[in-house]
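tool=predict chain=A
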Amino acid sequence: MNRKLYLKKMATRRKRVSREITDPTGVVTDPIQQEPPIVPSKLPQILSVSGLFFTGFFYLIFFHYQIEQKLKRSILINSLLSFVGFFVTLLLIPVATKYLLRRNLFGYDINKKGTPQGSIKVPESLGIVIGIVFLVLAILFQCFNFISDSNWLVEYNAALASICFMILLGFVDDVLDIPWRVKLVLPAIATLPLLMAYTGHNDHHHTKTFHSICWFKNIGFSVFLSAIVCNVHYAGMKTMTASPRRIYKLYMWLLAIFCTNSINIHAGLNGLEAGQTAVIASAILIHNIMQIGSSTDPEQKQAHAFSIYLVQPLLTTTLALLCFNWYPSSVFVGDTYTYFAGMAMAVVGILGHYSETLLIFFLPQVLNFLASCPQLFGFIHCPRHRLPRYDPQTGLLTGTDDGTLVNIFLRLFGRCSEKSLCIRLLAFQALCCAFCFILRYILTGWYK
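tool=predict ok
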């Protein structure tokens, strides 16, 4: 009888101990009370903002511009699939978090260190869910739009292969924590399927785009390419043939590497990675519709429609992720998402033939990269997390000397909360996109 009571007490003690864990500050807590349920708490706000955007977007398609019925039908089918992807993503993220936590793929919010929220396990690598839903939607869409002998089908599948490759490499990075030098090489490999399948469809485009690159010479890659052009042209190197097609492929390769890593570098705040992707994707959609509505070239229209087919599911799945990732974040996107989003936007810019416009959309990322160069290339000490300092007493962030746009904004405009800082950075992203539209309007007739 005594043995039975002893075993019962031990079983009760084991259950109680198994429910207790120690957080990073050394305090014993109950995980059931510590970890809140994963719910899309920002869903009403995201639906309101996205509803306003898509209302204007569909107005441009169906009322403002005269677009062929067949093209309208394809865009509408893609939109319906994308909206389905939004709700599927909302359902899958809470399910995926359970498996990620079970495999210890979680992190702590450094910008809330010293507060109760800073000791909560936040599931990481939720970008794997977004990437999978995106790929399924993009593959399903082929059944409605492309035929077996379509000239665009090869490039479409090559684009999906590059994106899929980057999702895989991003998830490997989340699990194995790959060094920075290796991270720079990963997009270079993932871009190869796209570059091998790229045909351009129009040789005149390469020449025109190639010469227009000089106009954007203040942007890093363009300076490099302009130097190549000048050396080849003026030095009279007859042994080296630098045709516009080859130089443009080199430009595309460098662009893909930059876009993929730039989202990953410009990060560190709740909602910043997904937020900047949503802003840029929205600008890309508007740009594509404006080009389709104003163009008379069927090939150019198809190129921009191709871009829409990939950006719509990217935007809707990203908005679903923002329902969980906006401040205060209940999930982290991980390197899987940043690599995936960067590669997806690089792909549409390349195949849509507006890579120079895409670079201006990425102007905050370009500035962030230039400010980060001394640390990224080892000239200045680079800490693991180049984040601002958090004051748990006031809840405000203070900028450090690290070369990131996040810290630069804090040094210029003073201390503020994490949510306010993220909103300022996204507003700056939107202003840069608006600047790009104004610039293209001013240069209409001279540039493209």
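Residues 69-102 form the longest helix (34 residues). The first strand starts at residue 21 and ends at 22.
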